[in-house]
Amino acid sequence: xxxxxxxxxxxVLILLTASAALASEGGGSSGPVHLDYWQxxxxxxxxxxxxxxxGKFAWKxxxxxxxxxxxFIRDSLEQAKEDREQAQAKLEEYVEKVEAARAEASSIxxxxxxxxxxxxxNLEEDAKKEASALVGRAKREIEAAxxxxxxxxxxxxxxxxxxxxxxxxxxxxxxxxxxxxIAESIEKLGKVDRN
Length: 195
Known about the structure:
The chain contains three helices and no strands. Helix 1 crosses helix 2 and helix 2 (37-170) packs antiparallel against helix 3 (175-194). By secondary structure, it is mainly α.
């Protein structure tokens, strides 16, 4: 309200100064501008009354609305600043969480790689041990089978030799009989191997 009264009062002062300057210059009614003091005074009084009425009824609501608008803008700016600061804090918090999650994921992956490497080594060692055991067992079985086959071959050879010898003793030996006995023995040996 104080600003509203000072502004029109300043205008009134300017109008009075201007009218006094014009009156002193003109020196009466001889100039092109004739100044009527009564009309000038009445205009000034009407202007002052208009300023007072406007100040009483219009300036207060206008200034009040402007002050409310200013407070609203100030509050909005402060709220926006607070919101921006909160958003910045949340962003930093999220960035920290993402970095922590990334570090944790990296450590989990590294741990998984280490575990996989240990498991691979253990599996290789177990496979080597098992393969070695299988090879050893296969060698033993082969040796046993070989020994059994040799023993059976010796036994068969002994039986064939004994059988052949008994036939030779029973027969008179001629070259043809000798060939025939060898062929029979070979044939028997072939039959035994097939069974």
